Structure formats: structure tokens, C-alpha cells
Inverse folding.
């Protein structure tokens, strides 16, 4: 019980401190921008710990973070195997294939304004659909192993990536195109020197959306059949056998991978589109 | 329409060979509200080494005329030649550099890389590229800024960089569409002075669109006054000012007389119905 | 109408490609079936045929290619088959007066729609309240916004089974609640981001004007920030409702639900009836289209009334 009270007090103290920082002149500091959310996250984890142990919540309902951490440390072999199966084989393969295909096709159809006008509304619509639903179909087409997971990811990331790239390629203004005309620049020169660089912020937007979709696709597809490994497999069997702490460990892996993937793409974006107003400081 | 005046003296390079010749030029745009005559019966000769300003209210076709010269628009009637060729052939031969109202530098390229852009497209070698960049950066007084990105520069410096970009491939003709329109008066004066010096040094033929009477009079050897609906030329004034022009020439009676004539021309062509 | 024609042409091309793909996709199943029915097939035996490419099979058995277009359990059904299945489970049921029977997709769609709408309501409320808090409080902006972004990089599907177990353990009745929670989780983020952008849309001079009137924060909010945010809000509501639907279906897929469009997909998978899966997918697409279109109309009407460009 003391732990509970202690954790509540800590949480409130952290919030009060964040408030101080947020209203101080140093708030735009890089360090402050990182410190404030991180410390709040830590306090919230501690509050979770306090609530679960203090109130005696059954670990079947919600295990304490310390239990999850212990399970995590004890089952690294399993977690690594699942990570390789789901993330490296399923999600990343599909992500790379799907995004590359969408990018290439976007560049190709961009030459025809007719195709662009026809495909853009359809692409926009399909990108909003619950495409995960095709997972069982693709599992039946490509088998239980990671190939079917990669296929689901390919289909899921394709349309958002396509739509963003096509839109990005249309981003140049009339003056910039006129300038290239006064140089008598050819199609390829205009594409490489003007339109692709100008499209990069959009391309990266697509890549970021696709990065979260890739993990979702790979995990859902495993619910419809997989070899006896993979994060989705472990989660669905773990829930059934009530090994909830292992499930939470997998969720933690998924959260870390998702954040790292997104963060990685954002970092590359920062390097490539350093010139864009949204990236300048 | 051409009026005979005294040619500016001292221009040793001024052979009177025509560079741009327009005869009975017409251009009609089809818009949603019907046809708009952007240019009607435009006759104009621009000679080598001329500094020609186009002045008039918006919609008078001054920008359109410049774009026709650059083959960015195509006339619906009449003839126009640039260096004795059709504008499109001239464009393919890279006969002119074009400066737009906005600097339009690519934000992902440094100033030097921006200036190299046309050179890359035109297939200059690396060494030539570097040489040209150094040359034109000096010409527009931007030495030492080559490694900066456009957004790190002031508006005036950006516009200078865009002029450098247009000069980089050493075309004989420079077409400028209100290049200083978005800048404040003081920066503008400074750039006008620099532009005149540059023109004097290089002997290029310049077509210059502007809204400002003092700017037109200060810069030009020939001022083309235009008026809208339909876009047409109402007066062509040959400047009597000397080629050497300090900024305070703008207070001389000669300057004011020319400015007055431009203003009269604008007033005559303008119905003030908008 | 400028886009209608290209869209139709592209759609026609997609349907044509689909039809063309049916033949190679289904040739094996068609040949297996023909062989069982006693027809001579080249080469004989399903196992032997696995060694041969589908193109070879199509060339060697030209008479059986067309059978691939009329299979009961095709790997890839034709668009017409999917349409027929959809009609059978919707329109025909209505005509028979059994629109709400367990075999009707209308029933399942309504279950999905319910959860979607609850999730949408919950997510939108959270998103808007969060945005208001973030715009008005720096500490919220600094502490909560990064976590909101991180929350979206976590694959919700990993959490979905947990949420369902949790709500079962906590004694929450019915499967609607966990589905709505998942749906709200996917839906709140676009609304939050769009709304923060919208509430910050007023320019400094517009805000300064209200300062010269000595307007209170409340008045600034209702007279300036809120109206200025509406175009952004509607745009993100459209993304939000589509995400809410995705969330509901994701919530139905891995959890052994028995009603809802996601459940139909699941059941179609378990019983090996691909037509049911395809029909449910098509129904989900139509549902998404209808929901987004409705919000679009609402947006046009509202913004027009407020004199804003749409």
C-alpha cells in the first residue's frame, strides 16, 4: 500500500515539475523536450507498478511492469526468434518490396496525367480501407510461413505509399517547371533534379505511415496461421494459455520495434529533407 | 510607333543588330470566362546590347510578352524571332537566361549547387561548372556564400543568386520578370545599381518587366509602355540618359522628363475602370 | 466530372486484370475438380501437376480453363461471383424479410458499424479534448504529445487480444466494448493531430486583434480558434472514421468474434469458403465508402454555411 501512495505522490511531483519546466524560459531546449516526456513515462510506469501491487491486481489481468521486465529478461531467446520471424522476415521484407514497388509505379504513372487522375482517387480510397482483412486470403495463397506475412504487408503499405509519392511528384510549382523549360531540360533531368527532391517530404510521409502498417500486417497475418513462432502466434497462444506476462513482453517488443522503425525513418527523413521548412530549426 | 531620340552615347559595343523582333504579335488565352486578348498587334525590335523595360498595369501583357520570347507561351498570330530563330529553337539553343519574380532557388541545394543546376543540365564539365560559379558569384557580389543554403540568405541575396543562376551559362539575352518586385526600396536601389554595372560589363541584351516608373527609367535604354484589355504597346521611349548612371541621376530634370512621359503614356492607356 | 472518366477507365482496367488473373489462379483447383469428375487431365494427378507451371497447365488443358471461372471454392473468385455472393447475403435476404438473420451481411455490417460508431465517438471526443488541452497547456503539449505519437507506432493488433481478455476479466459484458476501444485507439490520433493544427491555425494578427478587444481565453476559443479549426476537423474526421472501421475489423479478426464483418472473414477462413471472405471485404469497403462520403457531405454543407471554401 505504501508503494501505491508513494507512486501516486511521485507521479504528481513529476507532473508539477514538468509544469515548472514547461513554463520556464528553457522549455524549447532540446534537453527539456526529451526530458519532460521521458520522465513522465517513467513516472507512469511506476504508477502502474504501484497500482498493480498496491491493489493486488491479479497478474492474469494486468501484470506489474517489474514482472513483465523479469519475463522479458528470462525469455530473450523466444522473443528474439519471434522478432526474426515477424519483423525481419515478414514485416521488413514486405515493407521494402511494397514501398519500392509503389515508388516505382508512382514514378511511372506520373508520366500520364490521365492515369494519375484515374488512380489517385482510387488509391486514396483503397488506402482508407481495412486491407488487413485480406490476410486470410493471402495466407491461403502463400502458405503459413513468413512469405504470406510479407505479402500482406506488401498490399497494406502499397497504396498509402503510392498515393503519397504521386502527390509529392505533383508538388512542384509552375515557376520551377518553367525554369527547367528555359534550360531546355529533358524529362529525366527534370525528374531527377527537381521533382524527386521536391517529392521527398511526401515520400517520407508515406514511408512513415507504411512503417506502422507493416508491423500491424505482419502480426495480424500470423493470427490466421503461422509456424510455431512469431509475435502474433505467441500473443494469440499466450492469451489462450493465460501466460499474460509473456504476451506483455511481446507487446513491449512490438512497441519498441514500432517506435524504432518509425524513429529510424524519421531520422533518415531529417537527413534527406533537411531543407524543408518543417525540418529547419 | 518607335520614336526617334538620341541614342545613349558611350556604348562602344552597341551594334544595332536586332536580337528580338516581333511583328503583329497576337496572343489570346481561352479562359472559363471566354477569350482574353493578352497581346494585340505588338511590334517591337530589341537590338543587341539594349536594356529594355516593359512597364504597365497588371494584365497589360508585359509578362506574357517576355514569356513568348522565352517560348513559355505560344503566340496565336504574328511573328517573333529570337536571334533570327523561332523562340522554341532559341530556347533549345539556350539563348537566354530567365529570372522570375521569386528567386525560386531549390532549397535542397546550396547557392553554388543552385547556380550549377543549368550547367549540369547543359552538360558542362565539373571544372567548367566550378569556374562559372566562381565567376558569376563575383558578378553578383556573393563571393563566400556558395556553401550556404537559400533559406539562410536574405531575400535580396536570394534574388541576386537567382540572377547569378541565369548568368551562369552566359546566354546573350537576359529576361527578367519583375525580379525585384518583392524587395524593399533600399535593397531594390542597391540591386538596380548592381544590375546596371553588370549590364555595362557584360554587354548583354536585357528584357526587364517592372511596375515601377523610376526603376524603368533608371535602368533602361528603351522603355516600352503597355496597357491592358487588350494588352498592347502604347509608347516606346528611347532614353536620353547617359550610360553611366549614378543613383542621384534620378533627381535630374532629364530623368524627371522621361519619367513624366512614361507616366503620361500609362495614364493615356489606362481607363481606371477597375 | 474531369476525374470521373479516368477513374472509370482505371477501374475497368483493374476489373479486366482481375478477370485475367482468375484463370491462372484457379486452374489447379479447376483441374483437380475436373479430374475427380472423371475428365482426362494433362498431366494426371494433383501431385504431378504441382511440378508444372500454371501457364503450361492452361495450354495443355484449354477446355478446363473456363471452369476456373465458376468454382464453388475458388482461390480467386471473379468480381461477378463476389457480387453475387454479396447480393445473396444482403439484397436477397432483405427480399426474404430476413435482413437481420445471422447469415445476412447486413446484420454483420450493423454490428461492425455499431462498434465503429462508438469507437469513433470515443476517439473523436478524446482527440478533440486532447487537442484543446494541448493547445492551451504547455505542459500537456510537452508531456503528452510525444506519447500520442509513440502510441501510434505501437501495433495495436498486438494489444487487441489483451484488451479483450482484460475486459472479459473485468466483467465487461459483450464484445462491443473492447472492439470500440481498439477502434477509438486508432481513431483518436488523426483527430488529435488535425485538431491541434486547426486550433493553431489562426494567425498572430487574428489573435492580436482579439487581444486588443481584451477577449477572454474562452471567447478567443469559441469565436476564433474553434471556427478556424473546422476545416481541419472535418478532414481528420474522415480519416478518423476510416481508421475506426479498420480498428473494429482488426478487433474482430484475431479474437474469435462470431458477429461482425471481421468475424465473417474469420469464419470464411475457418470453413474454407473464400467467397464469404471476399463478400465481407467488399461489404467493408462499401461501408467505409458510405461513412466517408456522409462525412464529406456534412463537411461541404457545414463549411458552405459558414462561408468557408470547401
Amino acid at each position: 500500500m505504501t508503494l501505491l501512495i508513494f507512486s501516486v505522490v511521485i507521479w504528481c511531483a513529476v507532473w508539477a515539475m514538468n509544469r515548472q519546466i514547461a513554463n520556464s524560459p528553457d522549455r524549447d531546449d532540446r534537453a527539456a523536450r526529451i526530458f519532460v516526456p521521458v520522465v513522465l513515462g517513467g513516472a507512469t510506469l511506476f504508477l502502474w507498478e504501484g497500482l498493480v501491487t498496491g491493489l493486488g491486481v491479479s497478474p492474469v489481468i494486468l501484470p506489474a511492469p517489474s514482472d513483465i521486465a523479469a519475463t522479458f529478461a528470462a525469455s530473450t531467446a523466444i522473443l528474439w526468434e519471434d522478432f526474426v520471424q515477424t519483423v525481419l522476415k515478414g514485416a521488413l521484407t514486405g515493407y521494402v518490396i511494397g514501398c519500392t514497388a509503389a515508388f516505382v509505379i508512382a514514378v511511372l504513372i506520373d508520366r500520364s496525367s490521365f492515369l494519375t487522375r484515374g488512380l489517385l482517387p482510387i488509391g486514396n480510397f483503397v488506402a482508407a480501407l481495412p486491407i488487413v482483412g485480406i490476410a486470410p486470403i493471402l495466407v491461403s495463397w502463400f502458405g503459413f510461413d513468413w512469405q504470406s506475412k510479407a505479402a500482406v504487408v506488401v498490399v497494406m503499405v502499397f497504396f498509402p505509399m503510392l498515393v503519397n509519392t504521386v502527390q509529392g511528384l505533383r508538388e512542384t510549382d509552375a515557376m520551377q517547371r518553367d525554369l527547367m523549360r528555359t534550360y531546355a531540360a529533358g524529362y529525366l533531368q527534370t525528374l531527377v533534379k527537381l521533382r524527386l527532391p521536391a517529392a521527398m517530404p511526401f515520400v517520407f510521409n508515406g514511408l512513415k505511415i507504411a512503417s506502422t502498417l507493416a508491423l500491424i500486417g505482419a502480426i495480424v497475418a500470423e493470427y490466421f496461421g503461422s509456424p510455431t513462432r512469431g509475435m502474433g502466434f505467441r500473443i494469440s497462444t499466450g492469451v489462450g494459455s493465460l501466460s499474460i506476462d509473456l504476451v506483455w513482453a511481446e507487446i513491449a517488443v512490438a512497441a519498441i520495434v514500432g517506435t524504432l522503425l518509425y524513429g529510424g525513418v524519421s531520422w533518415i527523413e531529417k537527413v534527406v529533407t533537411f531543407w524543408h521548412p518543417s525540418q529547419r530549426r | 510607333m518607335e520614336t526617334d531620340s538620341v541614342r545613349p552615347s558611350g556604348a562602344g559595343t552597341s551594334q544595332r543588330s536586332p536580337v528580338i523582333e516581333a511583328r503583329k504579335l497576337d496572343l489570346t488565352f481561352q479562359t472559363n470566362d471566354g477569350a482574353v486578348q493578352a497581346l494585340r498587334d505588338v511590334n517591337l525590335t530589341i537590338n543587341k546590347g539594349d536594356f529594355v523595360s516593359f512597364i504597365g498595369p497588371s494584365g497589360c501583357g508585359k509578362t506574357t510578352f517576355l514569356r513568348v520570347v522565352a517560348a513559355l507561351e505560344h503566340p496565336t498570330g504574328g511573328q517573333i524571332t529570337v536571334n533570327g530563330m523561332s523562340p522554341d529553337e532559341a530556347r533549345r539553343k539556350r539563348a537566354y537566361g530567365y529570372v522570375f519574380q521569386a528567386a525560386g532557388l531549390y532549397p535542397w541545394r546550396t547557392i553554388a549547387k543552385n547556380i550549377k543546376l543549368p550547367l549540369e543540365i547543359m552538360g558542362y564539365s565539373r571544372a567548367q561548372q566550378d569556374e562559372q560559379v566562381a565567376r558569376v558569384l563575383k558578378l553578383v557580389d556573393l563571393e563566400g556564400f556558395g556553401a550556404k543554403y537559400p533559406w539562410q540568405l536574405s531575400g535580396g541575396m536570394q534574388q541576386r543568386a537567382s540572377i547569378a543562376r541565369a548568368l551562369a551559362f552566359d546566354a546573350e539575352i537576359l529576361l527578367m520578370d519583375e525580379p525585384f518586385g518583392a524587395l524593399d526600396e533600399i535593397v531594390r536601389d542597391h540591386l538596380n545599381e548592381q544590375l546596371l554595372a553588370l549590364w555595362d560589363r557584360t554587354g548583354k541584351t536585357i528584357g526587364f518587366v517592372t511596375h515601377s516608373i523610376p526603376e524603368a527609367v533608371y535602368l533602361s535604354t528603351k522603355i516600352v509602355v503597355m496597357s491592358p484589355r487588350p494588352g498592347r504597346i502604347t509608347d516606346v521611349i528611347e532614353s536620353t540618359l547617359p550610360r553611366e548612371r549614378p543613383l542621384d541621376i534620378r533627381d535630374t530634370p532629364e530623368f524627371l522628363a522621361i519619367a513624366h512621359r512614361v507616366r503620361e503614356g500609362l495614364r493615356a492607356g489606362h481607363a481606371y475602370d477597375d | 466530372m474531369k476525374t470521373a472518366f479516368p477513374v472509370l477507365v482505371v477501374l475497368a482496367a483493374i476489373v479486366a486484370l482481375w478477370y485475367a488473373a482468375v484463370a491462372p489462379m484457379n486452374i489447379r483447383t479447376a483441374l483437380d475438380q475436373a479430374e475427380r469428375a472423371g475428365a482426362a487431365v494433362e498431366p494426371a494427378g494433383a501431385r504431378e501437376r504441382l511440378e508444372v507451371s500454371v501457364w503450361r497447365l492452361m495450354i495443355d488443358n484449354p477446355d478446363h480453363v473456363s471452369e476456373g471461372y465458376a468454382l464453388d471454392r475458388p482461390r480467386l473468385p471473379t468480381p461477378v461471383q463476389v457480387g453475387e455472393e454479396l447480393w445473396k447475403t444482403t439484397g436477397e435476404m432483405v427480399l426474404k424479410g430476413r435482413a437481420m438473420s445471422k447469415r445476412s451481411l447486413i446484420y454483420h455490417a450493423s454490428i461492425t458499424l455499431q462498434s465503429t460508431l462508438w469507437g469513433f465517438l470515443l476517439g473523436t471526443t478524446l482527440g478533440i479534448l486532447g487537442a484543446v488541452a494541448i493547445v492551451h497547456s504547455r505542459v500537456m503539449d510537452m508531456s503528452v504529445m510525444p506519447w500520442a505519437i509513440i502510441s501510434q507506432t505501437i501495433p495495436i493488433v498486438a494489444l487487441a487480444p489483451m484488451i479483450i481478455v482484460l475486459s472479459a476479466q473485468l466483467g465487461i459484458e459483450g464484445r462491443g466494448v473492447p472492439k470500440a476501444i481498439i477502434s477509438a485507439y486508432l481513431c483518436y490520433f488523426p483527430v488529435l493531430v488535425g485538431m491541434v493544427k486547426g486550433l493553431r491555425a489562426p494567425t498572430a494578427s487574428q489573435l492580436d486583434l482579439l487581444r486588443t478587444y481584451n477577449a477572454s481565453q474562452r471567447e478567443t476559443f469559441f469565436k476564433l480558434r474553434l471556427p478556424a479549426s473546422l476545416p481541419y476537423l472535418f478532414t481528420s474526421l474522415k480519416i478518423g472514421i476510416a481508421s475506426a472501421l479498420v480498428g473494429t475489423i482488426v478487433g474482430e479478426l484475431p479474437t474469435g468474434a462470431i458477429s461482425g464483418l471481421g468475424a465473417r472473414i474469420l469464419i470464411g477462413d475457418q470453413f474454407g469458403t473464400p467467397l464469404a471472405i471476399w463478400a465481407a471485404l467488399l461489404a467493408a469497403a462499401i461501408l467505409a465508402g458510405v461513412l466517408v462520403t456522409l462525412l464529406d457531405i456534412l463537411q461541404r454543407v457545414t463549411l458552405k454555411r459558414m462561408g468557408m471554401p470547401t
About this structure: Residues 4-76 of chain C form one domain. The mean pLDDT of chain C is 84. Chain C has two domains: 4-76, 105-305. Residues 109 and 261 of chain C are 6 Å apart (CA to CA).
